[in-house]
Design a protein that fits this description.
The complex is a heterodimer. Chain A is mostly helical. Chain A is built from 19 helices and 4 strands. Helices cover 72% and strands 3% of the residues of chain A. In chain A, strands 1-2 form a two-stranded antiparallel sheet. Chain A has a two-stranded antiparallel ribbon with strand order 3-4. Mean pLDDT of chain A is 85; it is low at 1-10 and 435-443. Chain B contains 18 helices and 19 strands. The longest helix of chain B is centred in the N-terminal third of the chain and has 29 residues, at 8-36. Chain B is elongated, with a radius of gyration of 30 Å. Classes of the chains: A mainly alpha, B alpha+beta. Chains A and B meet through α10, α13, α16 and α17 of A and α1, α2 and α3 of B.
Chain lengths: 443, 467
């Protein structure tokens, strides 16, 4: 037994891990503080209070959060919360840098998000609630998404109407909520039916087909979500749902067949979509050859690539590059390009590393979980965070066609911030869940 | 119920590997754009960051010979520098530096120094890279004199033409005006108009304008004749030699010479002299051309500004007619005002020709280059020519409003080649008359009378210089 396993077994706070976590939080805050100070110097030539508040907010939330987690979830993974602190702080710097008028709004969302994260990680509720009422959650999520078809708005006034307006000030994107709800649903369903799925194959000669009756409800719910998303033309979210779905099926069954079948389906849909929908065709053409129309349709991706090129290894320095005004909607979809320009490849690689650690620690929690539901839930959440990052990062670096989704914690956007916080809150709780004191209350 | 032993752990590890693999792919993509393709993308014409970077480079200031600012960079908002031209009259020399339109003049010739692109130590390069510093250019000091430059430009006024004022001993260009002119401060706004302006304000007429020299060119023929010894200033000629020259077609003057017997010096002062055609014919085309080229006409110059090179002969074939006409400043001879100023300076400087130059110091360090001086004609010949030029100035200003200034020179007109258009008006000269220091060439396009139009400009500028 490793040392941490012993701690989990005894249920006492591992103070070494806890102090290490505080140290990491301090490091993250120092990084964010330096970034904000640099930004203040670059933008205003002096250290101003204006750029102080995001740092103060983040620092107080982080320290309170550390105390709360140490107290309520003693055995939790000490890396996850510092990473969230670092990423959301980095996000605050980027919003302050790129879309300054949204800074106060983003601060509200960070406050709300971290608050929800801590509640989810620290409150004594039962996993059972999540698992038991899976159809209720899913119906609610789909209902909200359905509402956007009728009452959907876009905060910018133009573009896809994927948001619901709450008092005209806050906007919420139901597809974000649906992400986490679908993962809960699938984790719950697969935890129950996993063995049936593995053991009862339909065999036709050497070919082993999945047992369709047991997959039915899953495919139905998932297909329904996908149809809604395609109706809304939210391709990025649809892609994420598919990748999370395949990841969870694979984790539950170990059958590569599902993965290849799913990817094959995706490819077929993509090719068909290319020829059927002008919009998808345009995206594809831009991806295949942005350089033939660098000032027209491909302007955004070309500017993104020019930003990376301008940043080179060490970047231009915070506030000294030109992500604004040249990259359209840089503060949401293209925040990585802004980081690549101002922090350089070194900073962007650092960001990738932090995201990888987040995913790996989430999967570690999945492996250590005591129940299949928590294990599948943690794996699904980690995979979702990982795929979401890869899809948007790959899009901004022209590795794959661009689909407009957010980079977890870093991009501007309230719904994304909130939902990412919920996801990591669940991961932190999962990492602490094998602790005996809490175990009694879990399923 | 746990998952131990069900293979789920293995599946999670594999999922993790797949995700990490995708992150590695992103990292490689990042490296491709940030490092491998960086230089090519940064250099793209349509990269707005190129312009943004340009605007953050502090170009060096440009000063005149007395340290007065001709062009400077002022810091604007957000680390951006603005280029200001405090003496727009110096535009023909200083040129412009525009992000959209490129550079010209000194701004172009010394772009590397002004931008600070000159190679620095590797340590400095690393320091700049680490601290994200934009290079700062070094300052230039020019030979121009702000006052004289402005005066030259103002005396030309609305007329189209050029003025070149040289320090005869050193070759320093003290003033180089060209009219009409452009304002480098408003170049971008004016560009659509400037581009198609038929008066060609973007052309530096002082160095790029190629003109027929006309009568003032007889000064060079005079120097050649005296240097060769084929005649002397006091040699007396008779009437018939100055009326008509029997070449094909014959050369004659619209009016007969004012005297029946005259010296070479006297003939030089007349507005038309068949005698010089005759002297040129006697000298022969090749020998004449040799002298003209030695004086600097048609000799490529090592000069920082775009400069045309004059021509003596278009197709390399001398005929009697061509030799005779060349000696009178007609024929196929084309000169730039700078070349004529250089010829005047050579005569003023006892036959020694100093190569013209524009830059005194870079970054406060005087350019330690010995002035390239070469002997063109003997000091004796130069003095003889000067004596005749003094007489020519006294004779020429008769009947004009020119003051009796302490200088010498010769004005004249040159057929422009445009049917019906008035001839160009020329003046070359130097001051002071006794101890020449400053030499000048003035041209006013289609100015008609050299003495009435070009000479007053030359006298005014020379006077101001000599004070």
């Amino acid at each position: 037994m490793s040392r941490s396993d012993r701690q989990e077994a005894t249920g006492r706070t591992d103070w070494a891990a806890s102090w290490a976590e505080l140290g990491l939080i301090a490091g993250a805050l120092a990084f964010v503080g330096c970034g904000l100070a640099q930004l203040a110097l670059a933008e205003q030539g002096a250290l101003s209070a204006h750029y102080l508040w995001p740092g103060v907010l983040l620092a107080s939330l982080a320290v309170v959060g550390w105390g709360l987690l140490t107290w309520r979830a003693p055995a939790h993974d000490p890396l996850l919360f510092p990473i969230v602190t670092l990423l959301s702080g980095w996000g605050l710097i980027e919003v302050a840098r790129l879309q300054e008028r949204f800074l106060s709004r983003q601060m509200w969302w960070v406050g709300l998000g971290l608050g929800v994260l801590l509640l989810i990680a620290a409150l004594p509720y039962r996993w059972y609630w999540l698992s038991r009422y899976r159809y209720l959650w899913l119906t609610g999520g789909l209902g909200l998404l359905g509402l956007t078809i009728i009452w959907g708005v876009n905060p910018l006034g133009v573009g896809d109407r994927l948001w619901l307006s709450i008092g005209r000030l806050f906007y919420f994107q139901p597809s974000e909520a649906l992400k986490v709800i679908l993962i809960i649903f699938m984790a719950s369903y697969l935890a129950e039916k996993r063995e049936l799925l593995v053991l009862t194959d339909l065999r036709i000669g050497r070919l082993r087909l999945p047992p369709l009756p047991y997959l039915g409800p899953l495919l139905l719910m998932w297909g329904f979500s996908l149809i809604l998303l395609i109706w809304q033309q939210d391709l990025g979210a649809a892609l994420l749902f598919l990748s999370a779905f395949l990841s969870m099926i694979y984790v539950a069954t170990g059958r590569q067949f599902y993965v290849w079948a799913g990817l094959g389906m995706l490819l077929a849909i993509a090719v068909a979509g290319y020829y059927l929908f002008d919009r998808i065709q345009l995206r594809g053409d831009i991806w295949l050859d942005p350089w033939s129309d660098p000032r027209g349709q491909a302007y955004q991706i070309v500017q993104s690539l020019l930003a990376f090129a301008g940043g080179r290894l060490l970047g231009t320095g915070v506030g000294l590059g030109h992500p604004t005004p040249y990259i359209p909607v840089v503060h949401t979809d293209f925040v990585f390009a802004a980081i690549g320009e101002e922090w350089g490849m070194a900073g962007a690689l650092g960001l990738l590393l932090v995201l990888v650690v987040l995913v790996v620690r989430g999967l570690r929690a999945a492996m250590r979980a005591r129940t299949p539901f928590v294990s599948l839930l943690a794996a699904g959440l980690s995979a979702m965070l990982g795929w979401q990052s890869v899809v948007i990062l790959g899009g901004t670096t022209k590795l794959i066609p661009l689909t407009g989704i957010t980079l977890p914690f870093v991009s501007y956007g309230g719904s994304s911030m909130l939902v990412s916080c919920i996801m990591v809150g669940l991961l932190i709780r999962a990492s602490a869940a094998s602790q005996p004191a809490l175990q009694g209350r879990t399923q | 119920m746990t998952l131990r032993g069900t293979g789920v752990e293995r599946n999670i590890v594999r999922l993790g590997r797949a995700i990490i693999l995708c992150f590695v792919a992103v990292a490689l993509g990042l490296g491709y754009w940030s490092i491998v393709r960086s230089a090519a993308l940064v250099a793209r014409e349509d990269n707005p960051r190129r312009v943004e970077a340009e605007r953050r480079i502090r170009r060096g200031n440009i000063y005149d010979r007395k340290g007065r600012t001709l062009a400077e960079s002022r810091s604007g908002d957000g680390g951006v520098w603005e280029r200001l031209y405090l003496v727009p009259e110096a535009a023909p020399v200083v040129g412009y530096a525009s992000i959209d339109l490129g550079t010209s003049g000194i701004e172009s010739a010394y772009d590397t120094e002004l931008r600070g692109d000159a190679p620095t130590s590797p340590i400095e390069q690393v320091r700049r890279e680490l601290l994200h510093l934009y290079p700062a250019g070094v300052d230039l000091q020019l030979t121009l004199d702000m006052d004289l430059q402005q005066l030259a430009s103002a005396t030309l006024g609305e007329r189209t033409g050029a003025v070149v004022l040289l320090d005869a001993q050193s070759g320093a260009v003290l003033a180089m005006a060209s009219e009409p002119i452009f304002d480098p401060n408003t170049l971008e706004e004016d560009w659509p108009r400037l581009q198609f302006d038929r008066d060609k304000p973007m052309l530096n007429r002082a160095t790029q304008g190629l003109y027929p020299p006309g009568l003032v060119f007889e000064t060079l023929t005079l120097a050649a004749v005296l240097e060769e010894g084929s005649a002397e200033a006091t040699t007396v000629f008779t009437d018939e030699l100055g009326v008509v020259l029997e070449v094909e077609p014959p050369i004659s003057c619209p009016s007969d010479p004012p005297a029946t017997t005259f010296t070479l010096a006297e003939a030089y002062t007349w507005p038309c002299s068949v005698l010089f055609a005759r002297l040129g014919l006697e000298l022969g085309g090749e020998q004449l051309a040799d002298h003209i080229t030695r004086m600097g006409i048609g000799r490529p110059l090592d000069f920082p500004l775009d400069a045309s090179t004059g021509q003596v002969l278009e197709r390399g074939q001398w005929s009697e007619l061509l030799a005779a006409r060349t000696a009178m400043g007609a024929g196929e001879v084309l000169v730039t005002p700078l070349e004529m100023a250089l010829a005047a300076a050579t005569i003023a400087n006892d036959g020694l020709q100093a190569a013209p130059y524009l830059v005194v110091a870079i970054d406060g360090e005087p350019l330690a280059v010995a002035p390239a001086v070469r002997r063109v004609i003997s000091a004796e010949t130069a003095r003889e020519v000067r004596t005749i030029l003094e007489q020519a100035f006294s004779a020429g200003r008769q009947g004009t409003s020119l003051p009796d200034a302490n200088l010498a020179g010769r004005a004249g007109s040159a057929e422009s080649g445009l049917p019906g258009a008035p001839p160009h008006a020329w003046f070359i000269g130097y001051a002071p008359a006794a101890q020449p220091r400053y030499a000048i060439a003035v041209i006013v396009e289609h100015g008609d009378s050299g003495w009435e139009v070009a000479a007053p400009i030359g006298v005014q500028v020379l006077d101001a210089a000599a004070k």
